[in-house]
Amino acid sequence: MKDVWPDAASAFYFDYHARLVNTVISFLGLLSNIFHFSILIRKSLRSSPVFSMMFVICICDLLQLLTQTQNDIKYILEFNQPDFCLGFDTYYATALTLTMETLGGFSMLVSSCLVILVALFRSLSIKFAMSKWSSTLAKTSTARKTSLIVIIISAMYNLSATHFKYKITPKSDDAFCAFSFYTGASSERRLYSASDGHSSTNAILLFTLFDGLIQIFQLIVFIFTSLILSRFIKEASSMKMMKSKSDRQAEKTEGLILFTLCSFFISTFPIIIANFMLPLFANLQIIPLILIRTLTISTMLQTINAATHGWVCLLMSSQYRAVAKTAFSPDHSVNAIAPAVEPSNASDG
Predict the structure, then answer these.
(1) In terms of CB atoms within 10 Å, which of 41, 133, 264, 306 comes out highest?
(2) What is the DSSP string of 265-327?
(3) Is residue 131 situated within a structural domain?
(4) Using CA atoms, how far apart are residues 194 and 66, in angstroms rounded to an integer?
(5) pLDDT band at 335 (very low <50, low <70, confident <90, very high)
(6) Residue 339: Cβ within 10 Å count
(7) Are the CB atoms for 88 and 175 separated by under 8 Å?
(8) Which is it for the CA torsion 8, 9, 14, 20, positive or negative?
(9) What does the alpha-carbon distance between residue 82 and residue 289 come to, in Å, rounded to a whole number?
(10) How many distinct structural domains can be found in the chain?
């Protein structure tokens, strides 16, 4: 195994330089999402079910970017240290890393579920517009209750996964430290790792199976909602002369949801493929370098996705632009302009 790791050095250096770029993206994304948060908190947007769920997604994006920035900066600072040992660290640093990973996983699960659900609710409301329950899906109260349920379930799931899958264990004398071997460094510190070696096979299989089911569900919903939203936008575009202001607003809302959904899957699809392939190499001594690079690129794409939600809303939603304009214009009030940009059915977003 030792004679294989030096060949993987290029993958480690690729990851290192990717983290440098990712740190810049995360920092810019934090600034962008702070602005995004300041717009979504406005009363005229909080009454919309779509933007109500976007508000929760924005908070998750901030949490994801903060945890990713912390992990990247820590990795960058330690990478060139002579005692850097990939996969091992001091006890408190390992505990912090595990905490950040849990928070990052929680924020990713919440935001991904809400992106899928907001598209699903909108699609069902269009597909079954004449049914009574479709109007329930279009209510702001439904969006808020759904967001709360997703937050609670995601928190319970991620805490359970961390508890059953990982445990901070000291580094054994015969444990191989990939990067310190390559650089010829050896650490005199007492090192630990967040190991999953203590977990039962059943627990690992259960969480792996559940993660796979979530990803399959997301893929099915993505195909279903994309077809419905695309068809709605195409049909609406063919009747421009007959559309009222509320119809045009609804069309733009569907466009916003579809664009957000597509950007989400562009960022997560590589990691879905990698996660399905990783078990195939579980019994091998080395993971193919293409998978390592795929996971690195996927992390960058997820960071870009989390950093740009505010810009997507600004470009795709006239209602969002109007509120953003009034938020920084002392000569106008939000309440004065909101009725002009909101559709007659405010729940449509």
Answers:
(1) 306
(2) HHHHHHHHHHHHHGGGGTTSSS--HHHHHHHHHHHHHHHHHHHSHHHHHHHH-HHHHHHHHHH
(3) yes
(4) 21
(5) very low
(6) 10
(7) yes
(8) positive
(9) 24
(10) 1
Range of the domain at 174: 5-344
Distance CA(183)–CA(178), nearest Å, equals 9
How far apart CA 214 and CA 211 sit, in angstroms, is 5
| Cα distances (angstroms) measured from residue 51 to each of 43, 46, 263 | 11, 6, 17
Find the DSSP H helices in the chain: 9-40, 43-46, 49-79, 91-127, 132-137, 140-165, 178-183, 201-237, 245-277, 289-307, 309-316, 318-327, 334-341
CATH of the domain at 181: 1.20.1070.10
- The answer to whether the predicted template modeling score (pTM) of the entire model surpasses 0.70 is yes
Identify whether 82 is part of a domain: yes
Please, what is the Cα angle at 55 between 215 and 136, to 5 degrees? 75
For tokens 């302009």, the residue is: 337
Is residue 134 in a domain? yes
User: Is 71's pLDDT higher than 70?
Assistant: yes
Residue 349 lies in a domain: no
DSSP helix/strand/coil, 337: helix
Residue found by looking up tokens 């598209």 in the block: 119
For residue 74, count CB atoms less than 10 angstroms from its CB and return exposed for 0-12, middle for 13-18, buried for 19 or more.
Answer: middle
Under DSSP, the state recorded for 240 is G
The DSSP letter of residue 197 is: T
Tens-place pLDDT, residues 167-195 = 887 877 666 666 655 444 445 567 777 76
Tokens standing for residue 224: 């279903």
Closest-CA residue to 85 (of 167, 3, 184): 184
